[in-house]
Specification:
Elements (H helix, E strand, L loop, with lengths): L2 H11 L8 H15 L6 H14 L15
Amino acid sequence: MSYRDQKKYFEQLKRYERKFSSEEKKDYTMMLKRHKDDEDLDSVSFAKLKKLYEKYYVNRVRKEFIDPFKN
């Protein structure tokens, strides 16, 4: 767990805050406060953050379409 990974997770989850349940929102705000204070998360908190990331962030692969007018 590095600060860079932690920062990436928080930046991506920022969009999905409104979708969190009340318990997830409470945990997320606590972790965000610790992150803003430049503290590293412990392994349990980082695991919760990673679980939220995997639950809400969907990394869709963009399809490469072949130009239909090009032969």
